Amino acid sequence: MLANIGVAAAVENGFVSSYENGSFKPHAKATRAGVVTVILKQ
């Protein structure tokens, strides 16, 4: 899937991370804290 490339790039560049067990939940709702973290990492 094309989205996998974007997610992989975001993880590699430190914009997002997986859960402690290594899973990634793309359909989970974003939290305010998570959005602020991504914005501040730019």
TrEMBL record:
InterPro entries registered for this protein in UniProt: SLH_dom
Matching PROSITE patterns: SLH
Residue span, SLH domain: 1-42
Pfam families in UniProt: SLH
Name of the molecule in the record: SLH domain-containing protein
